């Protein structure tokens, strides 16, 4: 176990280096600061500072993450919700972010793009999309020549 650290300035420096690569949830930041060996009091103060400056925001993080998971990586709502909760986002925030992303994107277009990108044969479409986190109703609503 690492030696406990007590400097809020060092904690901010360490966590800002951690945040440089991608947005993070509050839970990820807390976990990382704990791994760095900071006391709980320093962790709490650092998280409050980061929230005040807008450097961490679970609602915005959940939205950006859900948007990327759907549009860039091609995962469905169930997979996105599972991953967000694993990253420490509460269920309600995750669902709100997913609803917002779904309202901004054409789900059928996203599914067709995924199927084209992965060259999925017609007989395997339903199973493939289900494994990617799409619901049966969403898959059934997909219109492919000859039906999915």
Describe this structure in words.
This protein folds into two domains: 8-56, Arc Repressor Mutant, subunit A (Orthogonal Bundle), CATH 1.10.10; 71-140, no CATH class. The protein is elongated, with a radius of gyration of 19 Å. The model has no long low-confidence stretch (mean pLDDT 92). The protein has helices spanning 8-19, 26-36, 40-52, 58-71, 77-86, 91-104, 107-118, 125-131, 136-140. The protein is 66% helix and 0% strand. Helix 2 (26-36) packs antiparallel against helix 3. It contains nine helices and no strands. The chain has 148 residues and is mainly α. The longest helix has 14 residues, at 58-71.
Name the descriptors.
148 residues; Arc Repressor Mutant, subunit A; elongated; 2 domains; mainly alpha
General shape: elongated
Beta-strand percentage range? under 5%
- Overall mean pLDDT stands at 92
Number of helices: 9
Q: Pick out the low-confidence regions.
A: none
For the biggest sheet, the summary is:
none
Secondary-structure-based class equals mainly alpha
Q: Tell how many strands the DSSP assignment holds.
A: 0
Radius of gyration: 19 Å
Question: What is the helix fraction of residues, given as a range?
Answer: 55-70%
Span between termini: 53 Å
The number of distinct structural domains comes to 2
Brief rundown of the structure:
By secondary structure, the chain is mostly helical. The chain has helices at residues 8-19, 26-36, 40-52, 58-71, 77-86, 91-104, 107-118, 125-131, 136-140.
